[in-house]
Amino acid sequence: MKKADKIAYDKDYAAAKKDGKPFFPYAIYKDTIIAGLAILAVIVLAITVRVNIGEPVNPATTDFVPRPEWYFYFAFELLKIFKNQNALTPVIMATFMVPNILIILLVIWPFIDRGPERRIWKRPFGLALAVIVTGMLCYLTYIGASTPEGVAKGDGIPVSGLEGASAAGAALFLANGCTSCHMVKGVGAAGPGPDLTNFGAKGWDNAKMIKWLQAPIAPMPSYASLPPKDLDDLATFVNGLGTKYK
Ligand code: HEC
């Protein structure tokens, strides 16, 4: 800060202080009233507004698509930005790296920005940063809120030509955790099950696949509890991998 600026600033500060009110009791008194009102509002809302708690939990469901609360949509979207072949990278980046870097920046910001200036329009960099970060949060929240639920078309499995039964099968492939043991075109786990990218070349028909899904060899779990249509859709999808759906 230049010397003239500092003198002007000190003068401003002294003038403002002369007209000001003491912290105690004035500011404390105001804070207490506002905090009390806020708590009262929460209590009144808790008593008067009924929330819908939804269906009872069904641990056996396979088509439930978990969605975060709206205030976590931005983090939910961040996860998708860090889409990766390995399942851990997006989680580490979006739930640990990015939020913690931002929080650490927030904590050390007073040590980086040493200027005594408080007036917001005199701090274009800080102002711009605040607008950008808030804007990004709003944008990511909006995108998260407007993404269609679920993976109805098998989004996430990078094969083309999926439609109807095969698209439903791809969604079931994801929803039933097949990717936790099998890989399709780089998506999913490298083991213990075989890579199914070119499974279609084996020429299985749907009946054979359904039989396998109902009674596979361990450690692959049985999918005998799935509805017949789901098994058929899964079979259509897996049997066409590498041939119809590449
Ligand atoms: C817990 C891990 C696991 C899960 C989950 C799993 N599989 Fe498997 N899968 C395996 C293993 C291991 C094999 C190899 C079994 C063998 O041949 O000994 C296999 C084999 C297969 C085969 C090949 C059979 C063959 O003879 O070539 C197909 C097709 C298959 N799985 C489809 C699926 C589908 C579809 C799903 C989801 C509905 C699924 N798997 C879920 C572990 C798994």
What is the architecture of the largest domain at the second tier of CATH?
A: Orthogonal Bundle
Q: What name does CATH use for the topology of the largest domain?
A: Helix Hairpins
Number of strands: 2
Count of all domains: 3
**Bound ligand species:** heme C
Assign an overall shape.
elongated
Features:
single chain, 246 residues, mainly alpha, Helix Hairpins, Cytochrome Bc1 Complex, Chain D, domain 2, 3 domains, 8 helices, elongated, binds heme C
Q: What does this molecule look like?
A:
With 246 residues, the chain is mainly α. It has three domains: 1-47; 65-149, Helix Hairpins; 165-239, Cytochrome Bc1 Complex, Chain D, domain 2. Helices cover 54% and strands 2% of the residues. The protein contains eight helices and two strands. The chain has helices spanning 3-19, 23-48, 73-81, 88-112, 124-146, 165-175, 206-214, 228-239, and strands spanning 183-184, 187-188. A two-stranded antiparallel ribbon has the order 1-2. Helix 3 (73-81) packs across helix 5 and helix 7 crosses helix 8. The longest helix is centred in the N-terminal third of the chain and has 26 residues, at 23-48. The radius of gyration is 28 Å and the shape is elongated. Mean pLDDT is 86; it is low at 150-154. Heme C binds next to helix 7 and helix 8.
